Amino acid sequence: MSDQPKLQQIATKAEFSRRTAHRFVAGEEIPEAIDAVRQLNQKGFTATLDNLGEFVSTKEAAVAASDEYIRALDAIQASSADSNVSLKLTQFGLLLDEGACEQNVERVVVRAREQNNFVRIDMENSPVTDATLRIFTNLRKKYDNVGIVLQSYLFRTEKDIQDMLQLKARMRLCKGAYKEPPEISFKKKADTDANYVKLMKILLKSGIYHGIATHDPGMIQATKDFVTQERIGRDQFEFQMLYGIRRDLQNHLIKEGYRMRIYVPYGHEWYSYLMRRMAERPANLLFVARNIFRG
Ligand code: FDA
After folding, report:
1. Which of 63, 123, 165, 295 is most enclosed, with most CB atoms within 10 A?
2. Ligand 1 centre from 136 Cα, in Å?
């Protein structure tokens, strides 16, 4: 459903979708996103702001994405909100011109560095994994305030993690959100989960500050057990979760004294993001249906 332009047109116009999106998306403009971050901060969470959008088709749109992220960083700074930013390279023109994409991202990394802030490069689907790692590697060699995401459902990820550790890269580990072919990815949840636990241990043993991004109680328990066993401090890593998802668990972990960063998406292009969250958890469709019938 996330790839269907017609459905997207209908849904983004429909009031029910907007209401539904609000559960998972902070709003369409920067001030709403900053409000959401500040509310999270008051409860003890840090955040990472994501301006929704991907696969832009013009260079102008790619530069506009870069401008928007700079405005978001400035708004974070002006409001003293505790948040970094996460971005997707296809929103910065990766599929149009790799060099120009890198320059667009570099502008954001430089602005973040001036403000003592941090930029996380999200990982998209496998056709762009190599290019994403190439751009990240170039930037990481110049700047230390940039990090990357890796996905435990891909067979290649353990090797990628070893390469990224050579760069002393800060990584976010997630399971992966895209539909990938069986030749390159685990198809059974149990295999993706087992790989997640294996990779989590490699990351947390590295002594570098990483993000453990998951809502899966099994992955979270395995992480808690490992840090206890290895005497890794709660300030040596952070858990990360998505805005509006498993808020019960988010609150619980904060109360237990763990660090928790919430990924806060905002912007006009929320449709694909919302569809990915629906696909992960069909029960969310019930939430949508309730909103339709309410009316
Ligand atoms: P899993 O999907 O196995 O779910 C475990 C449990 O979590 C479920 O039983 C349910 O309780 C809960 N849950 C999970 N998804 C839910 C949902 N949508 N609604 C309600 N409950 C849900 N992916 C990617 O490819 N590139 C990226 O850059 C990122 N970035 C990223 C940042 C952060 C902070 C997070 C938390 C996640 C990502 N992801 C991502 C998404 C990630 O790859 C994955 O698709 C989702 O996190 C779901 O996987 P879980 O680890 O939560 O486990």
Report:
1. 123
2. 23
The CB of 176 under 6 Å from ligand 1? The reply is: yes
Establish whether residue 56 lines the binding site of ligand 1, counting it when its CB lies within 6 angstroms of any ligand atom: no
Which residues make Cβ contacts (< 8 Å) with residue 204, sequence separation at least 6?
210, 212, 223, 226, 227, 230, 232, 236, 237
Q: Span 83-102, mean pLDDT?
A: 98
Please tell me which residue in 172, 259, 261, 277 is annotated as part of the active site. 172
Q: Is the CB of 54 under 6 A from ligand 1?
A: no
Which class is domain 54-232? alpha beta
Quick check: is 18 catalytic? no
Closest C-alpha residue for ligand 1 atom 50: 214
Output the average pLDDT for the chain.
Answer: 92
Model confidence, pTM: 0.93
Q: Give the Å distance between the CA of 78 and the centre of ligand 1.
A: 31
Q: Where are the domains of the chain?
A: 54-232
What confidence score (pLDDT) does residue 113 get?
A: 98
Of 164, 62, 49, 160, give the one whose Cα is nearest residue 106.
62
